Amino acid sequence: MEHMNGAEAMVRMLQHNGVKHIFGLCGDTTLPLYDALYRLDHGMQHILTRDERSAAYMADAYARVTGKVGVCEGPSGGGATYLLPGLVEANESSIPVLGITSDVAVGSRGKYPLTELDQEALYRPLTKWNRTIDRADQIPGMVRAAFRAMTTGKPGSAHLCFPYDVMKQEVDASDVWAQPEHGSFPAMRFAPDPADVARAAQRLVAA
Questions:
Q1: Cα–Cα distance between 9 and 141 in angstroms, integer?
Q2: Residues 66-77: pLDDT tens digits?
Q3: I want to staple 76 with a disulfide (CB 3.0 to 4.6 A). Which of 6, 115, 119, 191 is the partner?
């Protein structure tokens, strides 16, 4: 059985969802994710920003122009608070932007480590979809759920809190797959293809 670590699984899940650009800024709790971005051949471009606010707004603009999900990332603590305004703007404008924030280790919660913050509570009322990944085996399913939520129904932003130690845990590689139709929006058509409508009309007229 082939395995990869949590950070590598996150990179592959973004790749499989058709992500081409990631906007963000590194912090100490994000280092395993940056290591995975450096090591793996994934075809994505990481764009380093001056601060997390810029990353979120750039991801929003990218989604509006391309019709694809925008992705931004930032570190725990202050980085998570700085990423929030751009995700709120995207959500209120029905634009799918995924914000990934690293976090202190699960085992450090409640022990007052530097940059500890209840990110899930912070993002809950302000994004369409919001989860904390407590175990690495949750990564594939949660990323799929985030992309599905962002691009179906009324589009909106999503947030994933990604703890430092979870990035280092093992993930079964066979679980790492995506539904690529959720990489752009709207994922499901609200109206039929015009060509299909024309063909149907012709058949009705000819009947």
A1: 11
A2: 999 999 999 999
A3: 115
